[in-house]
Specification:
The structure holds 2 protein chains of 2 kinds. By secondary structure, chain A is mostly helical. Chain A folds into 2 domains: 86 residues, RNA polymerase sigma factor, region 2, helix turn helix motif (Rna Polymerase Sigma Factor, Chain: A), CATH 1.10.1740.10; 73 residues, Winged helix-like DNA-binding domain superfamily/Winged helix DNA-binding domain (Arc Repressor Mutant, subunit A, Orthogonal Bundle). Helix content of chain A is 80%, strand content 0%. Chain A is built from 8 helices and no strands. The longest helix of chain A has 27 residues. Chain B has 2 domains: 48 residues, no CATH class; 91 residues, Immunoglobulins (Immunoglobulin-like). The longest helix of chain B has 17 residues. By secondary structure, chain B is α+β, with helices and mostly antiparallel strands. Chain B is built from 4 helices and 9 strands; from the N terminus they run ααααβββββββββ. In chain B, strands 3, 6, 7, 8 and 9 form a 5-stranded antiparallel sheet that branches. In chain B, 22% of the residues are buried. Classes of the chains: A mainly alpha, B alpha+beta. At the A-B interface, helix 1, helix 2, helix 5, helix 6 and helix 8 of A face helix 1, helix 2, strand 2 and strand 5 of B.
Amino acid sequence: MRAGDQAAYAVLVARYRARLGRYAVHMLGDRDDAEEALQDAFVRAYRSIARCQDDAKFGAWLFGILVNRCRTAGRRAARRQRMFVRDDASLARAAAAEQPEAPDWDITIRRALDRLAPALREAFLLKHVEELEYEAMAELTGAKVSALKMRVLRAREQLRALLSEVERV
Amino acid sequence: MFEHDDDALNRMIDRLREPVEMDPRLDTRVMTRVASPGFGARAASAWEWLRRPRAVVISPITGLGLAAAIAVLVWFLPTRAPERGEPLASDVTAVQFVVVAPGAESVSLVGDFNDWDARLTPMCAVRDGRLWTVTIPLAAGRHRYAFLVNGARWLADPSAPRAQDDFGAPSSVVTVGG
């Protein structure tokens, strides 16, 4: 492998790191998991760059790889949680004890996102945070536009309810 | 009530859109893995081997010889090539441009800095012709640029802010310094 390949690719990694990192952090809710998913996405993209056929869409292609890595990482994290979390009642008590009287806005946001199903969270973030068109989202996720619109709508409804619940506390 | 709920949701979206700082060392980790497939396991065992304490006995004569050899090596080391963002002169910086252009036969960098002349800054193909790259010195300031693929197709840099040139062709903006 030539040094020039790597130097050139390092420039792309540095340019896309922040944008892709934001999605991974919000999708997974854990910085270590997000960095691992992002790292995997960059490495996989480099190894399979021959599959990127459209030069104008390199960013979208890379984003698609990250979306898949986040799905895998999310499933792994959920399994991990199921292994360690067995007593729901104790957990609820512990969570209640940890809660400050007025929850920090960032914590509120994180909890609200965590309570969305992964498919709804993914659609919400791609639409409202990454500001993608539904057609681009369909290409990235493999879901139909109508399904994505429904997911975004349901995510918005659930988030509204969750946020107003917190504000009433 | 609905307006109030939307207000909270919009505040949440605004917060989520803010940039998230990622560990810049992530780039190094990516490039290490990219450089060597299967690097992880081998590197871990090599690191363990290197970290293992061991006694090394060096005679005074050998020690002097080693010191002299290191001094000679440092003296003859070549000067490192400038990387992206490294200052060259007071207001000139080496900037590396990279674009993914699979299947292209030629790619040129054109911009304000070379009077949009496609002959002046040809890019080099790396990674089996998928990536094209060139590094040029740029003065501090804002520069508009684009890539010219196969001498005919204009391509804005997908990873940079967009600009519109006087003829409506897609182009991008790079800001150096400041």
